[in-house]
Amino acid sequence: MNESQIDLAHTVALGSIGDEDRRAVAELLDNADPVLRAAFTREVERTREALTVIASAVATEPPAALRDRLLAALPPVSGPGPAGPGR
């Protein structure tokens, strides 16, 4: 894989892919040789795994009162209908 394709795999893994990149991915996956497709897919998976590890390492529990503050900030629900969980 070349540097551009690696960058594209990282963009896919981050979920920040635009229309132009989406076309490039489709072209790569539709027309590329099987070895390149496998390498691209593997790079996306490895990047997602790395992002998961990083996110897990820095994740913190939100403050206990956050949910109550957020719910209190919502406008009142008017009329019949499902109120949703916790409402």
UniProtKB/TrEMBL annotation:
Top-rank taxon: Bacteria
InterPro entries: Anti_sigma_zinc_sf, RskA_N
Span of domain Anti-sigma-K factor RskA N-terminal: 6-51
UniProt KW keywords: Transcription, Transcription regulation
Protein name according to UniProt: Anti-sigma-K factor RskA N-terminal domain-containing protein
